[in-house]
Specification:
This protein has about 475 residues and is mainly alpha-helical. It folds into 2 domains: about 10-245 and about 350-465, no CATH class; about 250-345, no CATH class. About 75% of the residues lie in helices and about 0% in strands. The protein is built from 19 helices and no strands. It has helices at about 5-10, 10-45, 50-75, 75-85, 90-95, 95-120, 125-145, 155-185, 205-240, 240-245, 255-270, 275-290, 300-320, 325-340, 350-365, 370-375, 385-405, 410-425, 430-465. The chain starts with a helix and ends with a helix.
């Protein structure tokens, strides 16, 4: 069954809401593109390394490639760090109307906040916006059902929050340190003075600035693109859990998962590791449901099977972390866990391409407002060649390292902090009023989006019961 078959099998109202949700989700990623564009193109434009039009087209292309290649060649772990913030069972176990309201509320909250901050030229984090919106609907749904604060995966929220907290500190310190190193190693006064008139940087530093612009854009696409994919997956799982419960990219891996069940039992038995009751039940479910199946398409009710696979991967991960588990068993269990994960953690190919296109096109639009803030209003002087190179090099490296660590980070926070760090290191001075506004926006983004998404969800649930 294709996406279109699954979508048009929905009743009229859910189908309409699905169309709206997909449109808003792709719109969020489009807005993310032009909201965060300035972070990549500011330095090359303000140092006259590239003219604005080729700069944004170049940045847009690199954003597209970053979003596309990272998932197709690597993995979508960052996307699932977003998906797993909101236990997707909530979308399935809630009644259909609640699931629709939940998805639309978090989408609309994210779009409203991003557009509002862009309109006033504030470089805030799209990551904070999305995460706050997800937390808001999760909390509101739990409170609506009288379940307290159980509607959020707080352990995962802590991991994500740590990445968002540490990354701007790294950006500030590392960019400042890199600029100081450049001053010691490269004794060329032009590098440390703001450009005058149409003066262009020396050839080698211009090449560095263009390369780092591409690096930040590619890294932004790789990290923020996955956040958009995670957002779209929440939409698809919420509206079509039967179709998207198990991998649509590799449905033929059903026999592989079936074989893994016996291998897991063998490893536990060989190393005399006790099999807990819940794990035993999940393994029995997998064996029974996948016996004789050549593809996931043969499974009628995919969601219980998805839950059994997901819980099994968590049990294997716990066994790996247990100090009582022998080293050989840990490596064997890790290999089996990695064999199971693609069955439940996947991004449909059309979602990958659609997100990459939305992000790339969005990057070419609307960059001027925030670019002026980053280049002219953080420090008391305009960016110098060396400051631009240091800030962008650190930003690109930090975001790519976050990808390897499977953590979502904010391109806006990392690069804006990097620019501030270079201003401090260069003794250029920092404009306190602008930095206070940016800091206030950063501090308010998470709670504001939590409150906005929760309010939209509550209003929606009063209207749609």
């Amino acid at each position: 069954m294709t996406f279109w078959d699954a979508a048009f099998s929905l009743p009229a109202l859910p189908l309409l809401f699905l169309a709206i949700a997909l449109l808003v989700a792709f719109g969020f990623e489009f807005i993310n593109g032009f909201h965060d564009t300035a972070n990549a193109v500011t330095t090359v434009i303000y140092t006259h390394s590239l003219q604005p039009t080729p700069a944004v087209l170049y940045s847009g292309t690199m954003n597209f490639l970053g979003a596309l290649l990272t998932v197709l060649v690597g993995s979508a772990t960052v996307a699932f760090s977003i998906v797993n913030l909101l236990p997707v069972d909530l979308l399935i176990e809630a009644n259909s109307n609640a699931a629709l309201v939940m998805v639309l509320s978090l989408l609309l909250a994210g779009v409203v906040w991003n557009l509002s901050t862009w309109a006033v030229g504030l470089p805030v984090s799209s990551s904070h916006t999305l995460i706050g919106s997800i937390l808001g609907v999760g909390i509101a749904n739990s409170l609506w059902l009288g379940q307290g604060l159980l509607g959020v995966n707080w352990a995962k929220a802590g991991e994500v929050g740590l990445g968002l907290l540490i990354s701007p500190i790294i950006g500030f310190v590392a960019a400042g340190a890199m600029l100081l190193c450049l001053r010691r190693l490269v004794k060329e006064p032009r590098l440390y003075q703001p450009p005058v008139g149409d003066d262009r940087p020396p050839g080698w530093i211009r090449a560095v600035l263009i390369a780092t612009c591409g690096g930040v854009s590619f890294a932004h696409g790789s990290n923020d693109g996955q956040k958009g994919m995670g957002l779209l997956l929440l939409v698809l799982v919420g509206f079509m859990p039967v179709h998207y419960g198990l991998s649509v990219n590799r449905p033929e891996m059903a026999p592989e998962v079936f074989a893994a069940v016996a291998e897991i039992r063998d490893v536990y038995q060989k190393h005399q590791i006790p099999v807990s009751g819940p794990l035993d039940q999940d393994l029995n479910t997998l064996k029974h449901e996948l016996d004789g199946k050549t593809t996931f398409h043969d499974v009628k009710d995919k969601w219980p099977l998805r839950k059994a696979i997901f819980r099994t991967t968590l049990a294997l991960k716990e066994a790996e972390a247990d100090s009582a588990t022998p080293g050989e068993a840990k490596s064997e269990l890790k290999a089996l866990r990695e064999k199971l994960i693609p069955a439940v953690e996947f991004v449909p190919i059309w979602v990958v391409f659609g997100t990459a296109v939305a992000l790339g096109i969005g990057t070419t639009i609307g960059y001027k407002r925030i670019m002026v803030t980053v280049a002219e209003k953080i420090g008391k002087t305009h960016l110098t060649y060396a400051q631009g190179a240091a800030a962008e090099s650190v930003a690109a490296a930090t975001i790519m390292l976050a990808d390897f660590a499977h953590l979502p980070v904010s391109t806006t926070q990392v690069l804006s902090s990097g620019v501030a760090g270079t201003m401090a290191a260069n003794h250029s001075g920092i404009q306190g009023s602008t930095c206070r506004k940016i800091l206030l926006a950063w501090v308010l983004t998470l709670p504001a989006c939590v409150a906005l998404a929760a309010a939209l969800f509550t209003i929606g649930r009063w209207i749609v019961r």
